[in-house]
């Protein structure tokens, strides 16, 4: 029987250069860790873009004879040069009172304190990447749910017997939970769960499945404009700054030669 060997063609991407500076595959591999993305290809693209922008700004520093100076603590010479270049060319106006007020009025739903929940739970653990174990954990959590719906007075004892969270020692009680204190998926679920009842389905998170009891819910309240103004001004200032830097980079790109990477097609936010 004739066996025909199959050969896979390995396509080597063209080298990336900014003027005479080459960005190697190894450079991109080292940079990838700083650019989380849905997949590795996107992470590499973001890493390459960040390196292109960095080399582009350093090339412009060379063109304008920008030298390093002692600046912020822990700042490298390259970071110092880029900072000076941007400070020289980027002017960010102070947000006006009317700008802050307009943003506040358009985003009143965000200008609230977070809801707070007093919560107890029973955690049935399961690794996030094992479908079989997660299916088994879901089945077990559903069984606990059904038993607790019939006998809610058993929650404390069942938490001690079945939960894998350290809170099992206090009957599964987590205390008062506010925004940012727990896993985002768990936090999001709390706002839609009934108070004083065992919901029909456990809450799924990366840690496994949670049988949850919300004891109390304290809804957030509007925050007055005066208390928000400083944060709004900081947000608007940073928004304008990023847009100005993006425009400056496009101008600088026209003064230099970029090979192997399309900067205009890379529309991800400016990498710091």
Automatic annotation (TrEMBL):
Gene3D superfamilies attached to this UniProt entry: 3.10.50.40
Domain of life assignment: Bacteria
Enzyme class: isomerase
EC number assigned by the record: 5.2.1.8
Reaction equation(s) it catalyzes: [protein]-peptidylproline (omega=180) = [protein]-peptidylproline (omega=0)
One Pfam family in the UniProt entry: Rotamase
Keywords: Isomerase, Rotamase
An example molecular function term from Gene Ontology annotations: peptidyl-prolyl cis-trans isomerase activity
Domain PpiC: 114-216
Family under the similarity heading: Belongs to the PpiC/parvulin rotamase family.
Protein name stated in the entry: peptidylprolyl isomerase
Originating species: Wenzhouxiangella limi
Lineage: Bacteria, Pseudomonadati, Pseudomonadota, Gammaproteobacteria, Chromatiales
């Amino acid at each position: 029987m004739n066996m025909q060997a199959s050969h896979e063609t390995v396509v080597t991407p063209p080298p990336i250069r900014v003027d005479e500076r080459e960005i190697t595959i190894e450079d991109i591999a080292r940079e990838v860790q700083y650019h989380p993305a849905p997949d590795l290809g996107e992470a590499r693209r973001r890493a390459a873009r960040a390196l292109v922008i960095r080399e582009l700004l350093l090339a412009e520093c060379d063109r304008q004879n920008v030298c390093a100076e002692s600046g912020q603590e822990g700042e490298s010479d390259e970071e110092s040069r880029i900072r000076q270049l941007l400070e020289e060319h980027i002017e960010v106006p102070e947000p006006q009172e009317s700008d802050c007020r307009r943003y506040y009025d358009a985003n009143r739903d965000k200008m609230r304190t977070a809801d707070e929940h007093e919560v107890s739970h029973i955690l049935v653990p399961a690794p996030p990447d094992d479908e079989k174990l997660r299916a088994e954990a879901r089945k077990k959590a559903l069984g606990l749910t059904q038993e607790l719906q019939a006998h809610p007075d058993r929650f404390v004892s069942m938490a001690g017997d079945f939960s894998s969270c350290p809170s099992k020692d206090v009957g599964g009680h987590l205390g008062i939970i506010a925004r940012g204190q727990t896993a985002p998926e768990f936090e999001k679920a709390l706002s839609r769960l009934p108070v004083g009842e065992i919901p029909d389905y456990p809450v799924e998170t990366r840690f496994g499945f949670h049988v949850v009891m919300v004891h109390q819910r304290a809804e957030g309240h509007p925050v007055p404009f005066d208390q928000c103004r400083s944060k709004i001004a900081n947000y608007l200032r940073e928004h304008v700054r990023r847009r100005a830097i993006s425009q400056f980079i496009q101008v600088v790109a026209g003064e230099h030669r970029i090979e192997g990477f399309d900067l205009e097609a890379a529309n991800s936010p400016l990498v710091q």
